[in-house]
């Protein structure tokens, strides 16, 4: 990450006194240090924006696994210079979303089977625990948020809008984690859910998957509303296990095309 260099301040001391005279006119006051130039701050904002936009394009599948990312083309696409693009790609490499090619260049990191297994195993446990805790603690405001998210998902299904459906889906699950009342659980789940988003496009390869998921969401909501923590946990874990099975099947089928690592 680029560091913003700060202009050093001058020492706050009395300059101009001589060893032979302690009584004399004060020396002219040193000029105050000027403010740091705005260019580094502007560049940092450009790097932040480029990182955010490229990350979103990778996570939602617009840049699929294995896609070669050329700095010049990305700079033209985002309307900025190559320097912030290069720094943004460095950040994404640290996040594991892109990787350097042996002969030079950058590509979107390949999807890995072991990564999918690990992430979905974690997600199953975290979502189950969150649903169980939410069933104990969810009040009318939380239930209303969940109802609204379910309504949005139903509307998206009716008009065939998968992107908006996933947005409502995120809202639904975030509301459950907030209702759990466990801050560490929420923080851990945020990391896992961000990483797992790369696999969401694979779910769309299964016919009627979103309709099935919507029914599962409705059942989870009803268990939480009824205060049945045991049932809410079982349903939430089953929901994630179903998604995991689809992702692993699709990845196994596509392992020969070079976009999936074993």
Written description of the protein model:
This protein is mainly alpha-helical. The chain folds into two domains: 40-108, Orthogonal Bundle (Arc Repressor Mutant, subunit A), CATH 1.10.10; 111-261, GntR ligand-binding domain-like (Four Helix Bundle (Hemerythrin (Met), subunit A)). It is built from ten helices and five strands, in the order αβααβββαααααααβ. The protein has helices spanning 38-59, 71-78, 82-94, 113-137, 140-159, 162-179, 183-196, 200-203, 209-225, 229-253; strands spanning 68-69, 98-100, 106-108, 111-112, 260-261. A three-stranded antiparallel β-sheet has the order 1-3-2. Strand 2 and strand 3 form a beta hairpin. The radius of gyration is 26 Å and the shape is globular. The relative contact order is 0.12.
Helix content: 55-70%
* Radius of gyration using CA atoms only: 26 Å
Query: Poorly predicted ranges (pLDDT <50, ≥5 residues)?
Result: 1-30, 32-38
CATH architecture of the largest domain: Up-down Bundle
Q: What sort of overall outline do the alpha carbons produce when their principal axes are compared? A: globular
Largest sheet: 3 strands, antiparallel
> How much of the residues is beta strand, in percent?
under 5%
Number of helices: 10
Q: Structural class from helices and strands?
A: mainly alpha
Mean pLDDT: 84
**CATH homologous superfamily of the largest domain?**
GntR ligand-binding domain-like
Number of strands: 5
State the domain count: 2
Order of helices and strands: HEHHEEEHHHHHHHE
Strand order of the largest sheet: 1-3-2
CATH class of the largest domain: Mainly Alpha
The CATH topology of the largest domain is Four Helix Bundle (Hemerythrin (Met), subunit A)
